Amino acid sequence: MTLRRPARIMVLGAGGREHALAWKLVGESGVQAVWVAPGSAGIASDGRIGVLPAVDPLDGPGVVDAARAQSADLVVIGPEAPLAAGVADVLRAAGIPVFGPGAAAARIETSKAFCHEIAAAAGVRMARSGAFARHDEALAFARELARPAHGGVVIKADGLAAGKGVTVCDAIEQAALALEAIFAIPAPAGEPDDSPRVVVEERLYGPEASLIALCDGRDALALPPARDHKRLLDGDLGPNTGGMGAYSPLIDLPDDRAEALVATVHRPILAELARRGIPFIGALYAGLILTDDGPVLLECNARFGDPETQVLLPRLAGDLAPLLLAAAEGRLAEAGIAAGIPGAMLPSRPEAAVGIVLAAEGYPVAPKQGDPIAGIRFAEQAGGLVFHAGTSPLGDDRFQTAGGRILAVVALGPDLPAARLNAERCAERVGFRGLQRRNDIAAIVAGSSASGAAPLDGPPPGATISLGASR
Ligand code: AMP
Ligand code: GLY
Q: How far, in Å, from the CA of 168 to the mean position of ligand 1?
């Protein structure tokens, strides 16, 4: 059995995750050309990667035209917005192999209520929750969950919110304010009155982990677990962001223990989506919380994580391109065997990787633009990988800030402390006015919970939830 390798690949998107995908793919055997559409000048500063700035990633027919013009034999969709807009469906209908789910399956990310519904039907454990169309019912359920015995409540706006629709509450007053804010916004036009506006969830405690698997609608091959740092400030303080840094591997979820989670989380979800006639082809991201009672699914994303991808891809020991193509074509199991992959985990290098996000002044609320960036070259010379997320060119190979998250600086090392030190040294070489970053990425890596001893091989009895009663 031989592995089929795509020669010409188009990656849709413009951020650090897409830069990392292009960086990984362009160096692989058999790959002749990689374009990022629309990409950015920063991504194109790696002279091996092409960019297609005129492509609107939300315009399905335009993306098909661009893929045909480049004779792309694979399109990889990075961000959630084109997935939600059905761009993968348009590409698939045009006969172009695409790694990314159609709009119906991508709802697993865009609707928290749908994610709970699928997980419940699949027997995958999530936090106890209810989905509500009515403010008074949502508040009543929040009060019930916030009673001391339950220990807290989380309010999640239903729909795509770029990581900003979630409020983790210490007290019912905070939950009530979050609900008021959600119900103050008029329901989207055309939505039926009874479609859920909010998910109210039991608050769980423990370290988090991201387990992302390549999926072909039925089978799954997981990348190593990674941990994102979502809060803006050191010590997990401040507002939630898209992610301020990431690292892999995880001491409290080693690769060999993650494999069981593919069987208990990813595969049942894939089976349930397939049963409903909406097979999931793409990267299924399980956001997990490692509680004292074992791992619980917090959310699913329908794409690679950002910034997790920037630390995960440098850790992969083998080629990604043939597996993405195999997933797109529904033959992942066969390709895994051809690639010599024995189980459900992609083989990884023993080195650890740490990535530090450098964000603009004012991020995440109102990021300031246009500050010149110094030192990218020095960070690269120090051995760092610098992935561009939100930069624009200033001429002469110089860049300025043009986004919220500006750059991710990634470094490898023989173990996590060494990788962290390397990443810190590289990140310190980059500067711009108002730069915000965390100084504790990968700093707390051991002994943070009893999750190391928790069973990883399946949900406890009766753990599935039901959403029906509260709608
Ligand atoms: P989500 O978009 O659902 O992943 O939520 C964003 C972040 O909010 C997660 O990464 C967690 O840090 C936190 N969070 C979400 N749901 C819960 C929960 N049920 N218990 C505790 N923290 C949560
Ligand atoms: N890093 C979290 C996400 O990609 O949603």
A: 7
Domain CATH number, residue 428: 3.90.600.10
Does one domain contain both 234 and 315?
Answer: yes
Residues 198 and 224 in one domain: no
State in Å: Cα 257 to ligand 2 middle.
Answer: 22
Does 79 sit in the ligand 2 pocket, CB within 6 Å? no
The domain boundary, picked from 52, 78, 99, lies at 99
Given 99, 118, 139, which residue is the final one in a domain?
99
For residue range 219-251, what is the model confidence (pLDDT) as tens digits? 999 999 999 999 999 999 998 899 999 999 999
The reported pLDDT for the residue numbered 455 is 29
Whether 109 maps to a domain, the answer reads: no
Task: Give alpha helix (H) positions in 189-264.
Answer: 255-261
Residue 6, ligand 2, Cβ within 6 A: no
* Structural domain span for residue 257: 205-338
List CB contacts of 303: < 8 A, sequence separation 6 or more. 77, 78, 79, 80, 83, 100, 109, 282, 283, 285
State the pLDDT at residue 270: 98
Q: Residues lining ligand 1, judged by CB closer than 6 Å? A: 127, 154, 156, 163, 166, 168, 201-204, 208, 230, 240, 287, 298-299
Compute the half-sphere exposure of residue 29: CA atoms within 13 Å on the CB side of its CA: 7
Q: pTM for this structure?
A: 0.91
Distance 144 CA to ligand 1 centre (A): 19
Separation of CA 395 and ligand 2 centre (Å): 31
Q: What is the model's pLDDT at position 185?
A: 85
Q: Which ligand lies nearest the alpha carbon of 298?
A: 1
- The Cβ of residue 315 has, within 10 Å, a number of other Cβ atoms equal to 23
Asked if residue 132 and residue 95 are part of one domain, the reply reads no
Positions of the chain with pLDDT under 70: 1, 149-150, 159-164, 444-471
Residue 370 region, left (φ>0) first, then alpha (ψ -120 to 50), else beta?
Answer: left
